[in-house]
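Key idea: predict the complex, not the pieces.
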Amino acid sequence: MKVSRNELIELLKLAFEGLGFDQGDYENAAKLVTHAEMWGLGGLEVLARALVGASLQPHQAVQVLREDHHSAVIDGQNLSSLLCLRSAADLAYVKCLSSPVGKVTITRCQHRLLVFQHLIGLSLRWVTCSASWWAGPEDNVLHVLSVLPGERTPSPEYKVYQVTGEKVKGEKLTGDNNGLTSTGQLEIYSAQSSQAMSAHLAELLPPSADLIKTLNSGDMLANYESSLVDGIGVDDALWFKLVSLAAEMLVPSSDQSRSGAGD
Amino acid sequence: MNRTKSQSAPGPATAELLDGLDINADLRSAAEVMDLNRLGSLQPFRHSFMRILVRQMVRDQWQVRCSQFELDDRGFGFAVYTIEAKAEIYSFVVFAAYLQDENRNDRVIAEQWDLTMALVRGLVKDKQLQRLRATVPMQEAARMTADMLVLSRANRSKRMFDYVVDALASGVQPEINRFKEVGYLCRTTAVYGSGKFGMADWGAVQHQCQSFAKPFAAEMFCCFMLRHFSVEQAQHIAHCKAPATAVSLDSDIRRYVGIGNATGLGMAPFLIKHPQLIAQWLLVREVAIARVLKMGEVTPDRLLKLQAMIKKVIQHTRETSVEDDNQADRNSQVIVDLENLTEILRENPALEDWLWLKKRLLEYYCQDTIEIVYSLLIELYPGLVDFMEKNLSVEENLQLCPEIALGELKQTIEADYDWSLAIDFKQPERQHVFWYRSEEKMEPRLGERYCEAGADKELPVQIAMAVKACYEKVCSHLIRYPNSDVIHFLLEHSDQTSIVKRIQTMSQLVYGDIQANLADQQMQPIHLLRAKLSFFGVSKFDPKSRLWVRNTMFQGAPLLNELDSDQHLDEWYFPLAPEG
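Result:
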C-alpha cells in the first residue's frame, strides 16, 4: 500500500508511543524511520527487523562512558538507534564547535542505518557530518553516510566498502579498551568545515577498500521526492502491525467518552 | 515583564514583516496575543484563508465548468467539475446519496452522509471515477491515492434544504429571514487534507500545486465548490419536482447562501502540535494591525468607509442567530460598543491618527469589539498589508540548541514561560481534564482525570505543565552542575528533549506558545476552535457547547460565475442579508 509522509510519521509516533517510548523518543523515532525510507535507505525494512527483536525497550538512560573536548563515547546498551542515539548527534555537534572534527562513538548500537535523519538534522545547522560503522559476517564491510549542508536541501551520500586482506582495526574499540567491544559500534562525526571532514573520511578509509555500493545525492533526492509526491510503499503486514501498536494509545469508547467531544 | 518575548534577531522572513516596526513599542505583547481568552475573540480578517483564496481565484481568472451532472430526480448521483487554475487542472467530484434523517450526524464518528466529495489533481477519467465512486463515499474507511488533495463530506440542513427545494419548486423565492437563521443548505462535518488516508502530502501540495500552496487553500476551495453544488442540487430537485413552476434561486439570495460547518475538538490539538505555524499566523495579523496603526494615513474617505463598515458589522451581528446565551451576550455587547463607537467617530471627524482609536478601544470596549475594529482597520489599507499573504506558511522544525548554557535556558523559561511557572499544578483543578484519542475514528476527546479512564493515554498538549516540570529539573541540575549546558542536561534527562526543543524554538519567535493550561477545569476549548476558525475566515460563530461550534463559510462570497467580475470581489466580509 502507499501512504503519505505525514500519515506514516503520525502512525509511527503512535505506534512507538504504544511501545512505551517517551515523547521525545517517539517523535524522533518516527522521523528516523520515515526519512530513512524516503531517502532510499530502506528504513521500513530496518524497522520490521527491529519490531521482532528486543532493541526497542524504552526508557534506558543514555550513559556517557568517556568524554573530552572533541569526542565522547556512549554505551548504546544494545538498543536500537531509534532509542540509543537520543542526544548523540547533538553532542557531536557541540564537539565540532570546539575542534575541527567532533566525534561521538556509540557502542552496542542496533539498526545503525537509522542514524541518517540525525545527520540531516545536523546539516540544517550548517555543519558537515557523517556516520560510519563496520558490519558483515567478518566485520569487514564499512558503511559510510555523509551529509553536506545545502541552500535548498542537504546533500547526502551513502557508500559501502568491502575490505579484504589485512584486518582493519581503525579506531574500533576493543575488549582491551575499558571493557568495550566493537560490536554494534557507530561513529558520528561533525565538522564546521567540509574540508576537515573530507580529510577525516580519507583517513578513515582503508587502502584496500572496494566500493561495493553507492547511493549518490541525486539518487537519494529523487527517491525522496518520488516518495513525497507518489507516496511511500509500505508492506501491508507491517502497516497493520503498526496500526495494532498504535491502537494501544486509543481509549475505548463509551457513552461518557462520547460526551467528551460534543454531545 | 517584556512587552514581547525574549527573542533574538528575527530571521529574514520575519525581518521583512517587521520592517518599519519596533517590536516592543508597536506590536501587542505575547502575553496579550497568546492568551487563550484573547484567542477566543479573534475575528476573520483580510488574510483569512477564504478571503485570500477568493482574491486568488479572481486574480488568476480560474475557470470552473461542470463536466458531468448525473443526478436523478431526487438529487442522488454524482457531479464532476473541472477547474482550470492558471496552468493547473483539478477536478472536484461529489457524490450524493440517500440518507435517512436519523443517520444524519455532525460528529466525526458518523458513517453515512448526504454528500461525499474530493478534490483531485488533473482531469478525472472513467476508470478513476469508478475508483472514486468506490472509495470517496466510504471516507476514512477507504484508502485514497496521492492524486487527491482533499476528502470531505456534508449533510443537508434539516431546517433549510427541503424548505428551499419546496419554495423553488412552487415558483417562489425562499424567505430571506430563514437564511439569517441558517445561512446554508448543507453543512460539512469533516474536511481532510495533508496526506490523510493516503492522499497527497502537504509537502507535495505545497511544492507541486501552486494554486493550493497556501495553508488550507485546497480545503477551503473544496468548501467553496460544495457551496456551489448544494444550490445546484437543490435547484435540480426543484425543477424535477415541478418542471412547470420551478424557478432558480435569485442571485442575491444565492450569494448569501454559504456552507455550514461543524467543528469539534479535532481542531484543538492542531494548534498545539503546530506552534510555529500558529505563532506565524498571529504574527501576520498583529503586524497588519501594527502597520495600519502606525503607518495608516487617516483621510476623510477612510473615516467614512470605517463608519460604513461598522454599520455593516452591527447589522451583520443583528442578523446572527445563536442559541448559546454567552455568545448571544457577547454579540449584544459588540452591538452596544459599535453603536457607541459610531457616535464617537461622528463627533470626531478630524482624527489625525489611529492611536486615538486604539486608546479608546482598550479603555471602553470588549475584546470582541477590539478585534472586530482591528479587522476593519486592516481592510482600509490593502497596500500596507497584502504583501503578507505569502508569509502565512513556515517550515516547521523544532530545533535544539544543545551548546547553550543551561543557565540561559533557565532564564529563557523564566522570561517566556512565566505564565506556566505561575500555575500550581498541585491543585487538582489545574489538572482536571485530559485530552485523548478515542478508538472511534481516533476522535480527540476531553476526559475528567479523576473519574474517567484513559489518562494514561493522554495527548501531549499540556505544554504549561511540561515546561514547569522541565524548569524544575533544570534548576535541580544547575545546583549540582552550575556550569552545565543543554546537551549535558539532556544526556541525563533525555525525556526532556522534546520540551526543550520547543522552548528553544518558540523563544526565537515574536509570538510563542499559546499561554494556557489546557488541563484546567475552567479551560474553554472553544477558544482554540475560534482562533483557528478566524484564520479560516468563518462567520456566524455559533457554539453548541464548550466543545463544538457551528459556523458559516463563504456566505456573501462571489458566485462561480462572478469570478471574472470585480463586482463582489473582496467586500464580502461580515455579510448582510439581501434586502427584500
